Predict the structure.
Amino acid sequence: MSTSGARTRRRLGAAALPVGVAALDGLVVNAVQAGPVLWGALAAAGALVLRRRQPELALAAGIPGLYLGHLAFAPLIALYFLAAHRRSAIPGAVGAMLVALAQFLPVPIGDITLLRLDHDTVLHTLDSCAFGAGAFVLGRSARQRRERLREITESREREHRLLARQTLATERARLAREMHDVVAHKVSLISLQAGVIQVAEPDVPAVREAAGTIRDLSVDTLTELQHLVGVLRADGGMARDLAPQPRMADLGTLVEESALPVELHLGELGGLGGPLPEAVERAAYRTVQEALTNVRKHAPGARAEVRVAPAGARLCVEVRNDAPDGSAVPPELPAGGNGLVGLRERAHLLGGTFTSALLPCGGFLVRAEFPVRTSAPD
């Protein structure tokens, strides 16, 4: 048995059940004897096939049977669907009053003059009102429950969309930070090396021209990169760094590749009580990397000093450089303004501090401290 076939049979069974119940009600009440009431009951049962699209017609077909032969199922089912499938409660309320009235009126209608305001009449009135109001209340309750479920479903879908949007924004921010930290560092190195070649080979025009082209392309690349970083960071927020990432052990290689006169001082980190968290190691590496990139941009020819050492229960990373050498040719690299901002974000995310300031000698200081026991995610 196929799944679609079973589903179709279940739907047909659910659709035929009210019709069958109403038809059975007509047969039982009339003892399977042909007559106007039986035909009216069967017609009312058949009209229930319209109960979802045209419940008003189904109710109109069922009320005469209720009035003439007490055939209750067909009009009550039609009234239920009328209350449940119409946005306004007015059609259902009108239908409930008609059902109650049909239940209350005597047969023939002329006997209404015989009614008296006595105990039996009051009970009959209450019974008729309850008869019509019951189906109406059940139908409206079903509609409200269905609307509530739809609201919950829509709310969850909105939450899922917002979560997906937030995840995308987080990834954009992470990608932007990595592009700035990694690509900008490498491209600035290319530009700096091209400048060195221009100075070292003054008598070879082809080499000088090629080096100048490389340098210009590097500057253009950084400019485009910083524009893209700004777009990526527009909807982003603070987030974890991408893995895998460089660690403290890579600082020596970073200093060697910096093409700068740098002194690296690594303090004894054993007193910090065990291995450093990976997030702290990555943040320390990125701090040194960005600081050296800024030295190449803004202080060409200056000497730099990098110190990484414990500061109580924290890891202190400090990069300071002298004033720029006036005889050195600046690399003319564009400044995006995101480097120090990103370092401050990293430090604050890990519960640390970050400061940057000009020195009296004309140099610059970048200092960050990170707690070595942090609950921030790696």
Observations:
- The longest strand covers residues 304-311.
- Residues 119-200 form the longest helix (82 residues).
